[in-house]
Write a structure and sequence with these properties.
Strand content of chain B: 15-25%
Helix content of chain A: over 70%
Number of strands of chain B: 21
Strand order of the largest sheet of chain B: 9-8-6-7-10
Shape of chain A: flat
Helix content of chain B: 25-40%
Structural class of chain A: mainly alpha
Oligomer: heterodimer
Distance between the termini of chain B: 65 Å
Strand content of chain A: under 5%
Distance between the termini of chain A: 33 Å
Largest sheet of chain A: none
Structural class of chain B: alpha+beta
Radius of gyration of chain B: 33 Å
Chain lengths: ~90, ~625
C-alpha cells in the first residue's frame, strides 16, 4: 500500500504534466509530408546493404545510455555533497 | 455502434470522474472473450457442475486460481515469459478445459508424390483473443508465436523451435523437382517464331534488336515459364506468375549485352538455349524487371500463406518469412491479425508457396464452439468483450456508491441491466459484480462475487489472484499453523512478513490501472500524437532486405533551353547485387559498422571518464 501510494503520487504527477499540454492535433503540413517521409525512410532502409543501421542504432543507444548514466552519477554526487558525512557541508 | 459501445465502456473504466477513486474503489470490468462460451462442454470444470454462463466460468476460474498460490505463481511466470517447464505444465493442466479454439490442433501436412508427411511437427491451433485471455490467466498454448492477437498461430512454446520433421527434410524439395515434364517438341530456329506444340509459341526478333521481345504464348497447360540470362558472373531470371504464365508479363526479355546466354525453361525444364553473340537481345521492360537469380537447383525460397476465409466469401491473407527446405528450416506461420468488424471467420487455409505449385498444407473450418461465440457475441470477436452493469443509461462504474446494494435490490431486474459487449444479457450474468460497487470491496481484496450466489470471492481483485503476495492472507498463512504454531517466533515473523508484504509490495492490478491512467492522460498530448504519427510512418515503410539499394527515379528536361534531349533515369544506382559491388558493399558495411563501434566506445569512455574525473580517456577531468 505504501509503495502503491508513492506510485500513485508519481502517476498523478505524470498526469498533471500531461494536463499542461494544450489541445493539439497533428498539423496538416505534417500529414502532407507523410509520403515524402516514407520515401526518405524507404531509401534509407534500402541503404541497408551499404550501411549497418542496426550497428548505428546500438551505438547511438549505448552513447545515450552512457550520457544518462553520467548525468545520474553527477546528480548523485551533487546530492551527496550536501550530506556532512559524505564530505559535504550539509547546507 | 457496437464499437462505440465497447469504446464507451472501456473509456468509462479507464477515465472515470475520479480516476484515483476508481483505481481503489471500483475494479475494472471483466473482459469475457468468446473463448469462454455459454454452455460449452469445453468449459466444464472438474468437480464443479456447468452453469451455462460465460461469466460463471470466468468467475469460477478466478476463484479456482485465487486459492492456488502455486497456480498463480505459474501464471505470473508464464505471463512474464520466465516460466519453467513445470510451471508451464501447471498452467496447461489448470486451464486445459477452459479454452475453446477456433480450430483443432493438427500438423502441417505436405503431400508429395501422393504421400502425406508432416512438414512441421508442432501441432497448430488457432486461438481467439488470446491476449485478453492471457491477461485473466487462460492458457495461451499455441499462441506464443503470434505476432498479433486475433489470428495468432501456435507452436507450443518457442517459435525458434520451428523446424522441419526428419521425414520432411529427407523429402525436401520433392515437390520442386517432381512432376516436371520434358515435352520439348521443337526448338527455336534462330530467334524466329517457333511452335511449342504443347506449351505455346515462342517468338523472337530475327534481328535481335532492342525494340523486340521474346514471348511465350501458351496453348496448353503451363505451370511456369522462366527466362534466364547469364554471362560470366551475372545471372538474371524471371519466372512467370503462377497460374497466369501466358499473360502479357511473360512477353518480356532483357538486354544483357554481348556474350550472354539465354535459356528458357518451360515447367522447370530448359527448353531453349541460345548464345547471343551479336547485338542485344530483345528488351521488354528493362533489366530491372528481372531479379537476381539465386538458384535454379530446385531449392526455391518458400513461404507460408495463411488465408482466412470470411463470412462474405472474401478472404484475407498474410505471408510468413521466406525459408528454403534445403536448409532444413521453416518459418512460423503468420496469419492476419485482425478481421473486419462486420465479418466472421469461417475457415483458414495454409498454403506453401514458392515451389512449383502452391500446396495446401492445412485447411479447417471454424469449430462449432467458435461459431456459437461468433453468433452470440459478434462484437466480442476482436478480443475484448466487457461485462457491465447499468443503472438506467449510466454505468454503475461511474455512479460511485449508487450501485453499492444493487444485488440486494428486489427489483434489480427492473432497475438495473447487464450487458456483455454491446449485447443485452440476463441480469444474472452480472451476479459476479454483487460486491463490486460496495465501499471497500477492493480493500478487502474481494470485489467480485460467486456467479451463482454473489458471495465475495477472496483474492479476486485484478492482479491479486495471480500476482499479489497478499493472497496468502486468504489462506490464513499470516499466522503459524501446524507445528509452526508451537514456535513463538513464528507468531511474530508471520504477521510481520504479511504486514510488510501488504505495505510495500504493490499489486500488479493496481499498478496496471495506474499505468493505464497515465497512458490515457498522455495519449492526446503532442508528444504522444507525434510518436503515434512517427510510428504510423514507420509502419508504412516496407521491409527491404534485398541488395538493390534505394531506387532513384528522376527526369531532367532542359530541352526548352538547351539542345539536349530530356534525360530520364529509373534504376538502382547503389545496387550491390553483382560483383564487384556486392563485395564492395559488404566491405563498406563491415568497416562502417566497425568505425561506428570504435567512435561510440571512444565517446562513452571519454564521457564517463570525465564524469569521474579521469582524464586519460580524453575527457575533461
Amino acid at each position: 500500500m505504501i509503495t502503491e501510494w508513492f506510485a500513485e503520487i508519481a502517476m498523478d504527477f505524470a498526469i498533471w504534466i500531461a494536463s499542461l499540454f494544450p489541445e493539439w492535433e497533428v498539423p496538416v503540413w505534417m500529414e502532407d509530408t507523410r509520403g515524402a517521409m516514407v520515401t526518405f525512410l524507404e531509401s534509407s532502409v534500402g541503404l541497408g546493404v551499404w550501411v549497418d543501421w542496426s550497428a548505428l542504432g546500438i551505438c547511438l543507444t549505448a552513447v545515450g545510455v552512457a550520457y544518462v548514466a553520467g548525468l545520474t552519477i553527477r546528480l548523485i554526487r551533487a546530492i551527496l555533497a550536501h550530506v556532512p558525512q559524505f564530505g559535504g557541508s550539509g547546507a | 455502434m457496437i464499437a462505440a459501445a465497447i469504446l464507451a465502456v472501456g473509456v468509462s473504466v479507464a477515465v472515470p470522474p475520479s480516476a484515483a477513486l476508481a483505481v481503489t474503489a471500483v475494479p475494472p470490468p471483466i473482459n469475457v472473450v468468446p473463448s469462454v462460451l455459454a454452455g460449452s462442454s469445453k468449459a466444464a470444470v472438474a468437480g464443479i457442475p456447468p452453469i451455462g454462463s460465460s461469466m460463471a466460468y470466468l468467475a469460477l476460474m478466478m476463484q479456482q486460481f485465487a486459492v492456488k498460490s502455486t497456480d498463480a505463481a505459474a501464471f505470473a511466470a508464464k505471463q512474464a515469459g520466465t516460466a519453467t517447464a513445470a510451471q508451464l505444465s501447471t498452467v496447461a493442466a489448470a486451464t486445459k478445459d477452459f479454452k475453446v479454439p477456433a480450430f483443432k490442433p493438427t500438423s502441417l501436412i505436405k503431400t508429395v508424390n501422393a504421400a502425406g508427411l508432416a512438414l512441421v511437427a508442432k501441432d497448430l491451433g488457432v486461438m481467439v483473443g488470446h491476449a485478453s485471455v492471457e491477461a485473466i490467466g487462460f492458457d495461451v498454448d499455441g499462441t506464443v508465436c503470434a505476432k498479433g492477437d486475433l489470428w495468432a498461430f501456435a507452436a507450443s512454446v518457442d517459435c525458434n523451435e520451428w523446424k522441419m520433421t526428419t521425414e520432411a527434410i529427407a523429402e525436401a524439395n520433392a515437390d520442386a523437382v517432381a512432376g516436371f515434364t520434358s515435352d520439348l517438341l521443337c526448338s527455336l530456329d534462330g530467334l524466329s517464331c517457333t511452335q511449342f506444340s504443347h506449351f505455346g509459341e515462342v517468338t523472337g526478333s530475327p534481328d535481335k534488336s532492342m525494340s523486340s521481345a521474346i514471348c511465350v504464348i501458351p496453348t496448353g497447360e503451363l505451370r511456369n515459364i522462366q527466362w534466364k540470362f547469364s554471362r560470366p558472373g551475372v545471372e538474371y531470371s524471371r519466372t512467370s506468375p503462377p497460374g497466369a504464365p501466358g499473360d502479357s508479363s511473360t512477353c518480356t526479355g532483357a538486354g544483357v549485352g554481348y556474350g550472354s546466354k539465354l535459356s528458357i525453361f518451360v515447367n522447370g525444364v530448359e527448353t531453349f538455349e541460345e548464345f547471343v553473340g551479336f547485338g542485344y537481345l530483345a528488351v521488354g521492360g528493362g533489366i530491372e524487371q528481372f531479379e537476381p537469380m539465386v538458384s535454379s537447383s530446385g531449392n526455391p525460397e518458400r513461404a507460408y500463406r495463411c488465408e482466412v476465409r470470411l463470412s462474405d466469401g472474401s478472404s484475407i491473407d498474410r505471408h510468413s518469412e521466406t525459408f528454403t527446405e534445403g536448409d532444413g528450416s521453416t518459418a512460423p506461420v503468420l496469419c492476419p491479425e485482425t478481421v473486419p468488424d462486420e465479418l466472421q471467420v469461417v475457415g483458414t487455409d495454409i498454403w506453401l508457396i514458392g515451389g512449383q505449385d502452391p500446396l495446401l498444407l492445412w485447411s479447417q473450418d471454424t469449430t462449432p464452439e467458435y461459431d456459437a461465440a461468433a453468433t452470440a457475441y459478434p462484437e466480442c470477436m476482436g478480443g475484448e468483450c466487457l461485462v457491465e452493469l447499468w443503472k438506467g443509461d449510466k454505468l454503475c462504474s461511474n455512479l460511485g456508491n449508487e450501485c453499492a446494494d444493487w444485488f440486494d435490490d428486489p427489483d434489480k431486474d427492473l432497475n438495473y441491466s447487464c450487458t456483455i459487449g454491446s449485447s443485452a444479457a440476463p441480469i444474472s450474468e452480472c451476479t459476479v459484480y454483487a460486491p463490486r460497487y460496495k465501499p471497500g470491496a477492493t480493500a478487502t481484496n474481494a470485489p467480485y462475487g460467486h456467479p451463482e450466489t454473489g458471495e465475495p470471492i477472496p483474492n479476486s481483485a485484478p492482479g491479486s489472484s495471480l500476482n499479489t503476495p497478499v493472497a496468502d492472507n486468504a489462506n490464513n498463512e499470516c499466522f503459524p499453523v501446524g507445528w509452526g504454531a508451537l514456535n513463538p517466533v513464528e507468531w511474530v515473523m508471520k504477521p510481520v512478513q504479511c504486514a510488510l508484504k501488504w505495505a510495500f509490495v504493490p499489486r500488479t492490478g493496481v499498478l496496471e490501472a495506474q499505468a493505464t491512467r497515465v497512458q490515457t492522460a498522455w495519449s492526446t498530448t503532442p508528444p504522444a500524437l507525434i510518436a503515434e504519427y512517427v510510428g504510423e510512418v514507420a509502419d508504412d515503410v516496407p521491409v527491404l532486405d534485398g541488395c538493390s539499394g534505394p531506387r532513384l527515379n528522376f527526369t531532367i528536361d532542359l530541352s526548352a533551353a538547351t539542345p539536349f534531349a530530356p534525360f530520364s533515369y529509373d534504376g538502382y544506382p547503389l545496387s550491390a547485387c553483382d560483383p564487384p559491388m556486392d563485395w564492395v558493399a559488404d566491405t563498406a558495411r563491415l568497416l562502417g559498422g566497425f568505425a561506428m563501434y570504435i567512435l561510440a566506445a571512444q565517446a562513452i569512455t571519454r564521457h564517463l571518464g570525465a564524469v569521474i574525473g579521469f582524464g586519460q580517456f580524453g575527457g575533461k577531468s
